[in-house]
Amino acid sequence: MYSSLVRIQNTFGFFTTVAFVVAAFIAASDFVTPRAPVVNVLKTTNLQVVRGRPHYYSSKKEEYAIIKFTLDADLSSLFTWNTKQLFVYITAEWPSTSVSGTTLPSNVTSNQAVIWDTIITSPSADHLANIGPIALKKLRKSAAGKPIDPSRGKITLKNQRPKYQITHPSGKIAETEDVTLRLHYNVQPWVGVLTWNQNADYGLWNALGGGLSKKFNLPALKKKDEGKKAKA
Amino acid sequence: MLSGMANPRQAAAQLMNFGLIVSTAFMMWKGLSVITDSPSPIVVVLSGSMEPAFQRGDLLFLWNRNIFSETSVGEIVVYNVKDKDIPIVHRVVRKFGTGSKAKLLTKGDNNLSDDTELYARGQDYLVRKDIIGSVVGFIPFVGYVTIMLSEHPWLKPVMLGMMGLVVVLQRE
């Protein structure tokens, strides 16, 4: 009855039960923490469409849009003790003009592509970030002694180059109309549910304020000699 | 020891008990599969391509129904490449078109380039049916035991044997 095997079993069983209950409490604490993310400025600063190849060995030529933008956002309320990292990304969205005869309602954006993203780690997850040793030292120093650092959620970018040059499966993207930029975020917890930006308020979590740029049209393809002239 | 062997009735009861445990676990797994509409509703992260969000051994809960909205850009999805049986957990970064024929491109947060090279030959994009679920929940580290089991094959029979022994030797 009271063999050591049974005792080990009971101890392990109790340990897992306690661990799961504590984890459940931590996960539930997310829902009682208010969130009020807001985007003050999101606008394009420079638009360009160039021709290029998808990769070095490809002979296919495609058009690529390079969308530079300015961003000012305050996502600091998303950082709590259960935040492991915040994934922030900006998408370019535009409606399809011709979907083989069928007309989509105008509010459906049928094309969406990420042009820029960033991972903001919580100080407790800094050691997991995939950055060089010097950058890591700097990052750790910036939040020395702080288990939570909401100031990392304040993002200010001026005339930022996009990380990804986007195209369309057809290879054509020049002169696309009604393009908008939209900011999104994804909160990655230490334990619990993953959450994304909302369009409506749920409980204590407010919808993302702003985060949508004005509509713009992509320019025509940049000609080669034009580029030379600009350089000269 | 081996008291069960002396009493065939008790031995049979223990065997039934063991069968009950196995079938309960199996039905819970299949039930979750039906609820989430995913062939594999819980997956273990096997690679570091989504670090720092997910590390090896983390447990992910999937959801594969599009009740409120379509699978869209920014969601972390688990997909199977054509003719390959390794599930990959990556984020959707591009989506062209709507519905079941929408073209989806994925990328690991920790990878420099997108997944075009991981896809099958001639496959440039994923479609909705390649995806077996979107990640909705996360528990760290718990799945590490399965990675240990697959990396050290001798552990599997040892653990199964020990579990069987414990169940058989248990009196009650």
Topology:
The complex is a heterodimer of chains A (232) and B (172).
Chain A: H1 4-29, E1 38-52, E2 62-74, E3 83-94, E4 111-121, H2 133-142, E5 154-160, E6 180-189, E7 192-193, E8 195-196, H3 224-231
Antiparallel strand pairs in A: 1-2, 2-5, 3-4, 3-6, 6-8
Chain B: H1 3-6, H2 8-36, E1 42-44, E2 59-63, E3 76-80, E4 87-96, E5 103-107, E6 131-139, H3 144-151, H4 155-169
Antiparallel strand pairs in B: 1-2, 2-6, 3-4, 3-6, 4-5
How would you describe this protein?
The complex is a heterodimer of chains A (232) and B (172). Chain A is α+β, with helices and mostly antiparallel strands. A four-stranded antiparallel sheet of chain A has the order 4-3-6-8, with no helix packed on it. In chain A, strands 1-2-5 form a three-stranded antiparallel sheet, with no helix packed on it. Chain A is elongated and about 85 Å long. Residues 227-232 of chain A have low confidence and may be disordered. Chain A is built from three helices and eight strands; from the N terminus they run αββββαββββα. Chain B has 172 residues and is of the alpha+beta class. Chain B has helices at 3-6, 8-36, 144-151, 155-169; strands at 42-44, 59-63, 76-80, 87-96, 103-107, 131-139. Chain B is elongated and about 70 Å long. The interface between A and B is large, with 40 and 32 residues. Chain A: Keywords: Endoplasmic reticulum, Membrane, Signal-anchor, Transmembrane, Transmembrane helix.
